[in-house]
Amino acid sequence: MLEALALAFFIELCVLYLKHCIDYINGDCNLISFSSYKGTASKWITIFDSPFYPDSLDEAKMLYEKVLERFIELVDEATNSANLLEIITKEPDPLRIQLLRVFRRYVSPDTTVEMTKKKRDIPNIINDFGDRFRSLEEVRRNLQSRPVPDETLMALLLEQSKRGQKGYDLTEYLVKTI
Q1: How does residue 100 score in pLDDT terms, banded at 50, 70 and 90?
Q2: In this structure, is residue 174 part of a structural domain?
Q3: Do residues 32 and 101 both lie within one domain?
Q4: Which of 18, 19, 91, 154 would bridge 60 by S-S if both were Cys, CB 3.0 to 4.6 A apart?
């Protein structure tokens, strides 16, 4: 069912594309090249607005301020960076996932949140990546050097969480329109 819907959606997109790309002059079918759209490219980039900075900071603060506060508490409890990851895995969802995002930023950019979501994989992740974890002492120094609340990190986390959202919005718009 889903494959048939996707195929129908793709066919409809092709039809819409052809309607816009074909110029019917005197009964001839002349395909319009993509380069001819350069003059109006700004109208084709996206139909959805993006928030201005710092307008999104209120939302970022609402979503991530408590997460960052909890991360600082857990850093204070931990004995080393591997132990910090183990402690984070004991936190309840969805807080645990957000803490893993902060862990990735401060401690281990090599490990994705998707890798660390499965609690049973944590020992292997520590074994495979632990030697590249930033030391807990350096994490503490970095945290102390940042303002509280850290609006920059909250804004980064918010942007990361909204990555791809315009694509979903566009798909929803097209499905409703078609």
Answers
A1: very high
A2: no
A3: no
A4: 154
Among candidates 90, 76, 86, which has minimal Cα distance to 139?
Answer: 76
SS3 readout for the chain: CHHHHHHHHHHHHHHHHHHHHEEEECCEEEECCHHHHHHHHHHHCCCCCCCCCCCCHHHHHHHHHHHHHHHHHHHHHCCCHHHHHHHHCCCCCCHHHHHHHHHHHHCCCCCCHHHHCCHHHHHHHHHHHHHHCCCHHHHHHHHHHCCCCCHHHHHHHHHHHCCCHHHHHHHHHHHHHC
Is the domain of 32 the same as that of 88?
A: no
Cα separation, 47 vs 37, whole angstroms? 16
Peptide bond into 149 cis (omega under 30): yes
Instruction: Assess whether 74 and 125 both reside in one domain.
Output: yes
In this prediction, residue 83 carries a pLDDT of 98
Model confidence, pTM: 0.71
Question: Are 7 and 75 contained in the same domain?
Answer: no
State whether 117 and 39 are in the same domain. Answer: no
Query: Range of 18's domain?
Result: 2-45
